[in-house]
Task: structure prediction
Amino acid sequence: MFYKYCYEKYGGIYETNNLLRCIVLCRAEYLEDFLSKSTHGMRSANYKGLKELGIEGKGITYNNNFKSWTFNRHFFNQAILSPKFTNEVIDWTNELFNELEGYWDKLFSREEIIKEKKNKLDFFIWFNHYKNDMIIKLLTGERTYSMANYFNTLSDEKSGHQSERVEDSEKLFQAIRKFHTGYLFFSVTTPFIRRYVPYYKNIANDILQNIGFTNQKLDEIIKRRRQQIEDTPLDKPLPHDMLTSMIIKNTFRDGNYIETGEANRSMTDSEIRVNLFDGISNGSYKSANMLSFIIYYIAHHPNVKKKMLEEIDSIFQDDKMRTINKDDFYNLKYCEAIVKETARILPIVHFNTRYIDKPSEIAGYQWPADTLFLANIQAIHNNNDYWEKPNKFNPDRWMDENFEPKKNSFIMFGGGLRLCPGRKLATIELVCLIALLFRKYEINLVDMNSPIKVKCDGGILVSCVELLVEIKPRN
Ligand code: HEM
Result:
């Protein structure tokens, strides 16, 4: 609300000065320099907290060392953007959706439950758990049981998965979730406060303990996978998860391996660990949030819902059971338009940050080194200079073959060098889930008069707090 107020009052560029000086850019044209140069590839200043958190110059998201970021990002992209990985995404969407349906059938689909109107659920929480299991499976190749754990809390009948493994999954996800708070805490407090002021010292210790726990769990997973790869005969195929790809790249198990020494070295375990962590922490909650927003907008736009159901039914006919495949994904054009339109009107990532370490010209002005910029994605996505009737939820705008948003005016996945590497994975998943959900279920909001319940996470992300829906099998 504050940034919206400033945008309306001061226009396309303004400055805030809270703990840090920050230049806020609200026009697509201003992003040209901001996104295009390699010198503007840094996300934040290199503050001391990064070192204490053990991520300084490591991984992708918070890595400000350009050389090391390039190395890690290359491995990450290769693993996640390959066609084999895309197949994995679709296979595991089918598999985990099936598991979710098993739980829903037990809890919400029986006739007497529907008659008694007890078929209500918090859609956001379910998909948060679903997404946890999905991202861990895709990135590490191992199963976690976050959905099963949630089911166990709602049902007297338990999920059937080993209770120890279910509880372990929950501990891991809680630790990963805490990291975001930790990152923020370490970026706004000084080392003195963290070490010597008792209240803050306790918080800092708790965050560091959490990181220690996450690192230990990820190290165990990496060790297990290295052993499995070693035990797999050379003529047998290896799985296509991200962890396996990162371990074997630039080793003799990699099909494209050429021995070149240090120039093409493979990754160490600690590098792999931070990359996995970046993928898990970025990839788990954003899609669950977005899917919740999508459900909300569909429920409030009956014409969009009708058109979407026509598309889904034309592809699946009356078959509510068959698995979804890659061709279905490519044919679900209107569902993809719904994803884009939801991200345009309510982007989860409201702001994109960049930091310059050398004097630069941005938005027509000269800026000194160490200036922090925020691209106000929400303002750009809702500006009528770039969008016709920007406040209208209208997926049809994306259906015109000749339609191309103005440069940098649609940046749901950011842009430039640090463009989101998970964009393909996220889009496939969201489109497939819309189709799997609506071909079989009638999904209505419990309260059509309630505005969407969101909160601001760390000043940058908008996340769903709750989305109560009523589900029943579609007639
Ligand atoms: C709907 C889902 C998602 C949205 C809206 C989203 C959006 C974004 C945005 C806006 C950025 C910042 C880009 C920039 O600074 O220019 C970003 C970065 C990133 N995202 Fe995503 N993302 C999503 C899903 C995912 C998934 C599924 C993964 C991983 C598997 C992922 C991994 C990352 C990583 C590692 C970065 C840091 C990239 C870098 O600094 O080089 N994201 N994402």
Observations:
- Residues 60-61, 73, 278-279, 282-283, 286-287, 290, 348-349, 352, 412-416, 418-422, 425-426 surround protoporphyrin IX containing FE (CB under 6 Å).
- The chain has a mean pLDDT of 91.
- DSSP finds 19 helices and eleven strands in the chain.
